[in-house]
Amino acid sequence: MNKEIKVLLVYPNPAMDNMITLGVSILSRCLKDAGHIVKLFDTTFYESNLVIGDSLREKNLQISKTKIL
């Protein structure tokens, strides 16, 4: 009996890379090939409470400063 399992992978992106790491991609593919439902939660573009997090993302051109009118 092969039970379908829902899996949520959370990718915190501590290195602030623009691409998902290979390990997460391989794990996702293996789970999908085994018949599971896989979703990925990528936090790359979420605002961080840490000033250094947003500063680093801006430096890596992942986000840019905007003015609220």
Describe this structure in words.
The chain is an alpha+beta fold and 69 residues long. The protein has one domain. It contains two helices and two strands; from the N terminus they run E-H-E-H. It has a two-stranded parallel ribbon with strand order 1-2. The longest helix is centred in the middle third of the chain and has 12 residues. 0% of the residues are buried. The mean pLDDT is 78. It comes from marine sediment metagenome. This is B12-binding domain-containing protein.
How are the SSEs placed, and which strands pair?
Layout lengths: L5 E6 L10 H12 L3 E6 L8 H9 L10
Parallel strand pairs: 1-2
Strand order of the largest sheet: 1-2
H/E element sequence: EHEH
Q: Which stretches are poorly predicted, pLDDT < 50 over at least 5 residues?
A: none
The helix fraction, in percent, is 25-40%
Major beta sheet summary = 2 strands, parallel
The N- to C-terminal Cα distance equals 58 Å
Number of helices: 2
Structural domain count: 1
Shape, per Cα inertia axes? elongated
Radius of gyration: 16 Å
The overall pLDDT average reads 78
Which structural class best describes the helix and strand composition? alpha+beta
Question: What is the strand tally?
Answer: 2
Portion in beta strands: 15-25%
Concise structural overview:
This protein is an alpha+beta fold. The mean pLDDT is 78.
Give a quick set of tags describing it:
69 residues; alpha+beta; two-stranded parallel sheet; 17% strand; B12-binding domain-containing protein
